[in-house]
Automatic annotation (TrEMBL):
Organism: Candidatus Uhrbacteria bacterium CG22_combo_CG10-13_8_21_14_all_47_17
Keywords: Transferase
Gene3D superfamilies assigned: Glycogen Phosphorylase B
GO terms for MF: glycosyltransferase activity
One Pfam family here: Glyco_trans_1_4
Protein name per its UniProtKB record: Uncharacterized protein
A biological process from GO: lipopolysaccharide biosynthetic process
Lineage, highest ranks first: Bacteria, Candidatus Uhriibacteriota
Transmembrane segments: none
Amino acid sequence: MKILVDARPLIDASSGGVRRVGIGLIPAFIKNNPDWEFVLATTGSKKKALPFSLPKNARHEHLLYPNKLISLLCLSGLISFDQFFPKERVDHLFLCNLGFIGRPKVPYSLLVHDISFLIEPKWFSKKARLWHKAIRAKKSISNAQNLFAVSKRTKQDLVEYCALPPSRITHIELGTSALSEPIERQVKGRYVLALGGNDLRKNAGCAIEAVNALRSSPEFQDVHLVLIGGNPAFDTQDEQEGRIVYLRPSDAELASLYKYASAFLYPSWYEGFGLPLHEAAQFGTPCIAATAGALPETAPKGTLFALPSKPQFWQSALEMILKSPNEFFTQTQQKSWDASAQTIQKTLVEHT
């Protein structure tokens, strides 16, 4: 079998968790199928290297077209992503995430991380909502030959919001990828870490309110909130309220921030998996997660939970952790990506 992999998310640093999942999954998928041929396809005005080396049964093909042109052509329906690589004569297209693909002329499989854009559109900016409409997200999901969901909750949501039979959706257990080696400590003193200052779905306001209330006590005045991702709504108050903002830390900086945090807060309104919790847990960092989406299903062992709408609960949990730091820690189970890859391989063989 010859597989065309849409590897664009793998070279896009802004793809976040989607990229990190792909970097773990795709090499395992290739390794576990040595008799198959893989073409990892990317586009853009400059060719970027893939973040991993390829064995003999795989190669990287790059189309030197600007991504905006690729998107426009796919949007117009004049061409599909697989047709940009006509010489390859592939049997199947594998998509690491939703994106501009047009109307593929070969069967395709789609890895679905979450469908929060269907569950609550108001979590997304107008630009993001237009993007999901332009890529025909729901249509791309419905037309996929195979759908792979990163959690049982994501599978359930696909059934409910896309009216799909459960038999078309396969839940895959994600593996564990080691983070970059952390650099030296970035923040002096005690701090708690939260993500998504520029993402409404991440609910950073809950973390901000909880830490502000915590700092009103003399015992915790020295505790800072480190927020990854800025938000103009908070910018003018950041310094005054003791927040430290990292707009886009490197992988090594992020690992350092996880490692030395007194706690990691994840008050998201919805997650399809919750990869950052497992990243923080690689260092044993205490985690507090929302009782929303897939997090109760997927969070690492030792995670505390709180309602995302109740900052006072997060404040109370933080007080417990900070008063007894040696009593709280998280553990993530080290899992190979081979099992994930084998699930995909088995499904493709059965449906081809």
